[in-house]
């Protein structure tokens, strides 16, 4: 139960496609299943089934339930080959090797074209297989049959309903039947389905043995020489998230997919999952909770608090996952603030002040993630552990990423960040990500004592063509300090002629921010506006927006750019047009913004920020804002939680501003 899912099928499906070369290999793979002495025979069957499932899924997405037609070449060839061997898969589902049987159990639902025969085989296997994993595969195969062959839908739904109602099958199998019946007909989910799932989840908790989470299996460690620690950690996270610890997790993921936008119902299911006595079930539930909160809007307070409850568990793997989820959901994680602070305090009391660098990996990750989550909330109680990272050098980059959220602790953090930056060798490529992160943190903290080390970093990076990203980060950081950073003007002036794609716009912005003369800056910006690179145009427009009315000579060129074929360019230029021209430009600006947002919702954050500055002139945008707020899924740039929460906040502020006069 508590082992991660591995094997050929998992590795195949993460690639997510079937090519003609895949189909060409099928005869060879199928021949391997014929020989009982084939090593890893069950894995070969699993791979064949996964190829068939991928082909079916593509067919259902691309062409409804009729997967026989119009499949991409590789999918069509694979599907045809495997369906011709449906009878052989039935034999494999009755094999004497239990692992082979388990791998083949989905096949009747995927490959048999005789609905009655497929249903009979599945009914037979359900009666013969006592294991939970096998039974869950069988009821899933039945739902797959109903979706693939509509003629079987009624028979399958009746059968699954009978299983769900029969106590003798046990709560886990019955839970599977309820959920897979819902998958057969999502539009038919009635009010009783979620309560039934909740009740069976409670019963299942007593039927599944409670086990501690097993240690991670031995894997070849990723190379660390010449690789940034952030990348190594990302690979570890990817590996960690392929592990599944509870037998019901895949089933419950299916149910969450079926429920879709029904966030309250999904929340109720997750809350029940989080109350499981089994650590593995709770760990999987924490991940699913994080996914729900990051992808869907709603009041997630109760779910957040139950995730926060996991911080106090004795299993550090679960605690670490809970802390990581709260850090990931930090824009809405304020209700968990006290739980995070209590967790950090208890860990420091129990394991010592240097717990950030604890030798036990689960404890170290648990503490670091809790500190990071609390720091992202701007809570000063993260400080006892946070400065220890740059001092010790253990996972310093994790602390650097969140340091900028604690401006009240700038006096303590800035000297450590500056010292750490001085020690980093800019010629060593893996250090680039850390250098950029430190520069961003110093800019966010805004302490002028950092100017000299930022300027020194700029000088060193500017002399190296391969350090243009660091050069840009240093320029952006110096821009924050304005005229106080004027000592770096000569270096910045030289960089306005740099050939680097990202450097010139950042140098122009910095030159203006440091108090540069308009006559020095405007030729640079005009050149960028004429550039064919779209982000050069957008960057130049952003600087012009900062300059405002003094740059009105450029208004005609900005108006022309409102017809650019890329909506992102139009949005940035419209915002600059408003800042320079004001009310006289409002109709054109508003029309551009609303069209861009309707065409590409990812522009929404930029659009509403400009609408907020437009005041009464933004009134015609209110219907679009109301429509946007009514969407259940998160929106804004990248549809992530950070941008979406900001999008909702600004949109509600705008709506309240216009509603206020009517109420009075």
Can you walk me through this structure?
With 664 residues, the chain is mainly alpha-helical. 67% of the residues lie in helices and 0% in strands. The protein is built from 36 helices and no strands. The longest helix has 23 residues, at 41-63. The termini are far apart.
Précis, in short:
The chain is mainly α and 664 residues long. 67% of the residues lie in helices and 0% in strands. It is built from 36 helices and no strands.
Write the layout of secondary structure elements.
Blueprint: H1 8-15, H2 20-34, H3 41-63, H4 73-84, H5 86-92, H6 98-104, H7 107-111, H8 115-128, H9 132-148, H10 153-165, H11 171-184, H12 193-207, H13 229-240, H14 249-259, H15 263-274, H16 279-295, H17 301-309, H18 316-328, H19 337-351, H20 361-376, H21 388-392, H22 396-403, H23 410-423, H24 432-445, H25 451-462, H26 468-481, H27 489-495, H28 503-513, H29 518-529, H30 534-547, H31 555-561, H32 567-581, H33 586-599, H34 604-614, H35 622-629, H36 641-663
